[in-house]
Structures are given as C-alpha cells and as structure tokens.
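pipeline: protein-struct stage 2 | run 1193 | Zinc metalloproteinase/disintegrin
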Amino acid sequence: KMCGVTQNWESYESTKKASQLNLTPEQQRFPQRYIKLGIFVDHGMYTKYSGNSERITKRVHQMINNINMMCRALNIVTTLSLLEIWSEKDLITVQASAPTTLTLFGAWRETVLLNRTSHDHAQLLTATIFNGNVIGRAPVGGMCDPKRSVAIVRDHNAIVFVVAVTMTHEMGHNLGNHHDEDKCNCNTCIMSKVLSRQPSKYFSECSKDYYQTFLTNHNFQCILNAPLRTDTVSTPVSGNELLEAGEDCDCGSPANPCCDAATCKLRPGAQCGEGLCCDQCRFTSAGTECRAARSECDIAESCAGQSADCPTDDFHRNGQPCLNNHGYCYNGNCPIMFYQCIALFGSNATVGQDGCFDANDIGHKYFHCRKDNEKYIPCAPQDVKCGRLFCTYIYDIDLCRYDDSANGMVAQGTKCADGKVCNSNRQCADVNTAY
C-alpha cells in the first residue's frame, strides 16, 4: 500500500512558561502552529460501517487524537473543527482514480465548502479502493490554499492508528514534506512512500528538515493562531495541549498545580492553567513579551495582563522593504532568493545567474510558472523569476542548480525586480497590488 504522490523527492523563540517546560528539543525547534481539520466521510464508508454514525464519529475522534500525538514532534496542534458524514449521497463523484478524486474534492472545497465553514485543511475518508494500490494522496505544499489544502485517504485498515498514520502522511505532504529516501535511514517513518506492516509514529530527520524549509519559505496565516474552544467538535481529551469546549484548562497530569485533572477545571485561586501569558497559575503582568519578533517583518507581542493567551500573531504590512531593500515583507517574513537557496542547498549556496531563469519559459515539468489541468504553463518573459529557483555555489561549475520538488519554486512574496514581487499566480507584479 502506498501514497499516490509521485513527485521526485529531493524562529522565533517564545518566552518559556511553566506550561511549556515539557516541550522536547524537537518541539522547541519549530514555532507553534495550529491546524483546524475538516473531516468528510463519504457514503461508501458510511455504508461500510452499516450506517452507524456514532461508531464512525468515535473512530474519527480516535484518528484525530493519534494525528495530534504524531504532530507534536513538529510542534503542531491539530483539532477537529468539522466532521461531516455523507449519509445520503456523496457530494462529489468519488472515483477509483485518486488524482481525479483529489482534484474534484479540492474544487468542491474551494467553491462550496469554504463558503459555509472555516477550517485549514480538509480530508476525505473513503471506502473506495483506488487504482494502483494507492491509499492516500495530497498536493505537496498546499496548506492554506483554497483548492490544494486537501487530502484523500482510504479507510484501509481496521486499526485506527494505521489509518491515522496515512492521514498524517498526507497532511505532511501539504506541509511541504516529500517521501523519505534511503538516505533518511527510516523505512517505516511517517513519510515513507510505502506503508509498512508496523508503521512508525515518528517523522524522520529528513521530514523535519523539509518542514523547516517550508516554514522558512512560507508563513501561511491560516495555521498561526490557536482555534477558539467553540471551533472544536471532538470530545474533550485531557492533556492534548489545547482547550476544548467544556474545559477551563488542559491539565494532563494530576500533578498540575493549576488544573484539576479529574474535571479540567481551574483549582481554587488559579487564574489560568496554561498559555504563553500564564506563569505559576497567574496571568503574566501586562507588557511582558510573550512572542518575540522572528524577523524585521514581524512584530513582537506582549501580554495584556488579563488573559493567559498571547495576542494574535501580527506582523508589519506586506510590501514593506526589508533586508536593506533586498526584499519586501510578506506575512511576517522577508523572502529573498538568497535565503531560499541556502535552505535548499546549504550555507555555501547563492542565487544562480539571471540567464538560468530563462528556462522557466519552456513550460516543462520542472521549468514553468503554473500548472493548469495537468498542463505546465510557461512563464512570460517578465515572470521567469517567479518560476523554478536557480542556485549555485561560489566557484561551482554548475551555475544553474535547481531542486525539482515543489519547494524548489520561488516562494510567493519574493522580490523579482525593483518594486515587484511574485504573486500567488507566479507573476512578477507591482508590490502595491500583488497581495
């Protein structure tokens, strides 16, 4: 059984509070992110479980708990914000062709679903047996995109954990991860191309590096902020590091001095149980920095003194010059090709010569600006620096190195000319109208 993704595979430091002391070094490596999941159960899966919606709901809740456990190594909290069971009929045509079904599901999310509910990433669970022994598929790097922040997963095993690994795998693709190669020294990890008989609950070091590159090149707003308690629909689970409906605090251990583990209610005299602005069960004083600025495009946030939560992550306006006019601010980062080359090829890399980028007007699998209905659209001459990124090393004979994965494209918001940046359509557009 395998994943259907077929591409070639190639911080900020927050103030540490009592509630964060249990973070592993891996979690401290990545900034906190939150993914609100929408799960859709197709009619075939509804029929598979004899129309027992309660059984399906319980199974999905268990899947979400497993996904959340696996994503902790990336410092990601996942919550179930929407569960929809297609009990009467499918709302899209679910086919044996995984690519076709994924395309239809993405289009439905963009045109129908987002008009009626808010979430970050949607997955379709199905009983359909896909061609080629495929059990899941998702676009690489599609997180937060209206059409591409989706995945399809076959409910292929009676064991909840095994299916949850596949769901995490596909969400990993959306977060910029590719399949683990032999050099990753982990043929059973979450991003392995083929699901093993005993899949691991761990991400490989390769996956962590890919995710770190993804965060370096992108700063998608949809996963920056914690959901409200009213945004979650799963049964409250104590110790999942998130406040859900019915909880005053997320206690976890009975030894928590702020929170009663039996009731998930605050102990007498406690103002809070966790949060960046909670210290020893009390609100941190107003003005205490709770989230440092991670770049000159970001804004540091401070506690208000009346809440345990750090204010919403904010940043300077998009288009503000940064890094000595080498770039323009975009969603709190200053994306420039130089740092993207370093992220892809190491500290000795630099941007390739201008002539390298002319290859992007070919309309090839690797050299293009956009993809439309499986057709690669060449870049217009003025847009070639918004397609594939070209890098080189100092004194390197290869002046036009490139990474043929999704991460090898020039990041949105990157400066492509004076007063211009790459927009979401991979056009080199005026910085005043590009966002």
